[in-house]
Amino acid sequence: MARQDAILVVCLVTMVTTSLAFDLTILHTNDVYARFEQFNKYGSDCSEKEAGSSQCYGGVARRLTKLNEIRLSHSNLLLLDAGDQFMGTLWFFVYKGMAAASFMNKLGYDVTVSDDEMNICFTYLNL
User: Where is the secretion signal located (predicted)?
Assistant: First the structure.
């Protein structure tokens, strides 16, 4: 009888554990450095010719398209960024981080942490 009780307990624990399991997809970006536009393999702006021949990478539009595609098939998704979104291009020097914040909101980031962003937030964004 004790053996049957033990087997029953193991089965119940397994069922409870299994019912609590779920899939979680984690997507991560890092070191964007205000590169909101597409760029070529040298890290320079894409020419029309390069863009027309699929030789460009990155950019907010590409990330948004891919994120929307992934979100359609993954209901439990976290989008994380480890920082260095802001500085790096004219976008930062003109908009002081507001462009990065706007794009990150549009992309739907769940979490971002970085000492650089915290310093910039206090300096420029008045948060």
Answer: 1-21
